[in-house]
Structures are given as C-alpha cells and as structure tokens.
Amino acid sequence: TQQLVWPMAQFGQVVNMYQRAEASSERIFGLMDEQGRIERDDDADDLEVREGRVEYDRVSFSYDTVDSSDSTDGAETVRDDSGSERIIDDVSFDVDGGETVALVGPTGAGKSTVLKLLLRLYDVDRGTIRIDGQDVRDVSLSSLRQSMGYVGQQSFLFYGTVEENVTYGTFDASREEIIEAAKAAEAHEFIQNLPDGYDTMVGERGVKLSGGQRQRVAIARAVLKDPDILVLDEATSDVDTETEMLIQRSIDDLTENRTTFAIAHRLSTIKDADQILVLEDGSIVERGTHGDLLENDGLYSHLWGVQAGEIDELPQEFIERAQR
Ligand code: ATP
C-alpha cells in the first residue's frame, strides 16, 4: 500500500502547491480586492513568456454587462450594445518586452481597470490582450498570474513571519536568496532590527510595519519572484525623502529589462518611462514620452506644470473634462 499511497500524496501536494501559487499571486495584487468575473478553462496551456511583449488591440470593457438602462445618470456616457457604461473604450497600445509603460490620468479614468484586464480579473468585452502573441483568455490563469509581480500602495502582508511574507508566491527560496532580495529592496537593515529579524511575526496581530517598510517587503517579494511582467501602483508614497530615494532606486533596478506597467499619480516617478499613456474617460487621449507630451500642451503638460509648481492650478477646461 505504501507504493500506492505515496504517489497519490505527492500528486496531492503538487496540485496544492499550484493552487496556493495561484491564490497567493492573486492576493498580492492590491488592485485585486474583488472577485472579478471570468470564464476559466482549466485545460488551457500555460503562458509562455519569451520577450514580454504586451499588446492591447482595440480593447473595450464595461463592469456592468447586465442591462442598466434604468440608471438615471449622464445621458452623454458612452454605452455599449448591452446598455452599460464603457469604462475602457477602444484602447490600443503595444509595449515591447522590457519596456516601461506608465498610465496616468484623472481618478476614475480607468488606469486600474486596464491592469485588471491584463490579469484577467475581468474579461474584455471587445478586442484582445496578448502577451507574446498569446491571448490572455487562452492561457491558464495560474501561469498568467505567476508571470506577474505587484508592488503597490496597498501591498498586502499576511499574518506570518517576514520571511514567509517575502517568499509568498515563491516556494523554493533559500534564506540566502531571501536576504539577497531584501537587500536589493533596501529592506534587510530594518528587518534585522526587528525583534526576531526574519522570523518576526508581522501583519495583523504581528509587529506593525510602516507604509514604507511594507512597500519594501513587497519589493523584496517581487525581486525574489522575478516576474516577467511587473505592475507598479504608485510605488513610492508615505515615506520620507531619503527612504523614497532608496525605494526608487530598488524599483529602478527591478524594472530594468522587465516589462513594467506603472500607475502613477505623481508624474515625477514616471517621467523616464518609455511611453506614457494619458487616460481620460476610458480612452487614451495622449501618448508618448515625457518630452513628447510636454510639447503637446495638453492634459499631461498641464498636470506636469501643476505638480512641478510651474502653474498654480489646472486650467478650468481640464478640470471640467475630468469631472465629466
Ligand atoms: P484612480 O486613479 O482613482 O485609482 P483609475 O483611473 O484607476 O482611478 P479605475 O479604478 O479603473 O480608475 O475605475 C474606472 C471606473 O470604473 C470608475 O468610474 C470606477 O468607479 C469604475 N469601477 C471600478 N471598479 C469597479 C467595479 N468593480 N464595479 C463597477 N465599477 C467599477
């Protein structure tokens, strides 16, 4: 019976490990604080990332696909065939492998939604999203989510040791690798100074970490995971200037030669991006490098002017547009 039991037990472990990998990959995405809605195909092939090229091809999406014709708001909103408001409206862009693309725009413009579609928290209503030519709907969810890393404001810590929080999503890391990752994230020093170092319990009921420390744990987690595609959600915030510089440096290292999507509110953090997409009302209204966009004299250059202190406030025209 031993012979029979063992293989079964091991198989069970493997399945369990994949399920855990997928669940943890899902949970560490701060923007995935919702259940989502997709049709999954458990027999799908795994995603094969070669260069990390990402294409959005005429993508449209509404959260609300049931009929919402009885809603009373705005007669001018774009509605799709089913009558619901389009949150993403005919968006196309290409990101070459290793490039950084930044998404900027007013609150509610659809920046997070663009990324939720990449992660397949939701499926597009129209159009296609491809990674190295593979439609994200045609590959297994676990492989899709294993290929991505997230560093964000709401970086998720669970109740467990610092070490477990760093290895979350990567199961076979040695202590040495964990320390390497923490060093790259400028987190090693503060971790060493915790009561039990890497064995300190953090998260709910554990030692409280500051926002900056949580972020550095999240960066260490991403360094260790070494994902093909990185998602940054306004990665520096809530910390003093010196820590911010350290964090920015480790993030720069992390994004190098890795396809990166960065959602930014402060434009100074993304001005070196290979391309910047300015979203407004679910559409791309401007695109280009920082230099291109400054010359454009549109929403971006005005937002930049305000944030750089060059102009006092956004011209009325843009405020009205953002409030529509
Ligand atoms: P912010 O800068 O405030 O994070 P954003 O540009 O990331 O905004 P999204 O979070 O993508 O914008 O939201 C775009 C629109 O979709 C908003 O009008 C928002 O209210 C709506 N929305 C977001 N999530 C959901 C959801 N789960 N169900 C219904 N509507 C949603």
Automatic annotation (TrEMBL):
Compartments in which it is found: Membrane
Domain ABC transporter: 54-306
Top-level taxon of the source organism: Archaea
Official protein name in the record: ABC transporter ATP-binding protein
UniProt organism field: Natrarchaeobius chitinivorans
Residues of the full protein shown: 329 to 652 of 665
